[in-house]
Amino acid sequence: MRVFMAAMLVGLAPMALAVAQSSQPSLQEPSSQEPMSRGGNLPRLGEIMLGKQWRHIKLWFAGKGHNWDLAAYELAQIRASLIEAASLYSGIPVGDVAIMAGPIQSIDKAIQSKDGAAFVKAFNDLTVGCNACHRDMERGFIEIRVPGASPFTNQVFAPSAKR
Ligand code: HEC
Q: How many CB atoms lie within 10 A of CB 154?
């Protein structure tokens, strides 16, 4: 059930269905810190978050570079990892997942309309949402900000037309 709620909140029901189907037996009472031991190799929440952190950086440089295809891809990854986190870890407050829906939709819109300024604003709002949940979950010391420089020296962020 949680997975559907999370998915509705971030507006991605079909993907949630896939997540639910793949992990259903494990969706009972995972704590916020440790995945259930049964059900195989569930990712630890910190690992899911590390993935989100990479994607947060990549999304930023894709959007800044107006590489809208890449930005859409990275946004979908962030969405999926949020659904994954909320569905596997029952300790995550639903309200903090819901907070992410607005910025995710706004980024989506900015990408669709190729609007760089709207992208920057929505990305800032997304980042505020990351930190709001960290604070609520006593992880306020994990403070996310808009990235300054890309650590990814092996990936091109400009769209191919600009190369
Ligand atoms: C709904 C709650 C929630 C949201 C939203 C959220 N996080 Fe987290 N995040 C957590 C929790 C809880 C932890 C601590 C996990 C643990 O203790 O194992 C965490 C940990 C992290 C970590 C630390 C991982 C490590 O091992 O160093 C990073 C980085 C991170 N989050 C990035 C992000 C980014 C970027 C976003 C936004 C795009 C985000 N988080 C949104 C709940 C959230």
A: 5
Q: Report d(CA 153, CA 145) in Å as an integer.
A: 20
What is the Å distance from ligand 1's center to 83 Cα? 13
Among 142, 143, 146, say which to mutate for ligand 1: greatest number of ligand atoms within 8 Å of CB. 142
Pocket, ligand 1, Cβ cutoff 6 A: 33, 45-46, 49-50, 52-53, 56, 78, 92, 96-97, 100, 126, 129-130, 133-134, 137, 139, 142, 144
pLDDT, tens digit, 9 for 90 and up, residues 27-56:
233 444 554 444 567 889 999 999 999 999
CA 21 to centroid of ligand 1, rounded, Å: 24
Cβ atoms of residues 6 and 82 within 8 Å: yes
Question: Could you tell me which CATH number the domain at 2-21+45-147 has?
Answer: 1.20.120
Length of the chain, in residues: 163
Q: What is the pLDDT of residue 90?
A: 86
Q: Where are the domains of the chain?
A: 2-21+45-147
Please give the model's pTM, rounded to 2 decimal places: 0.84
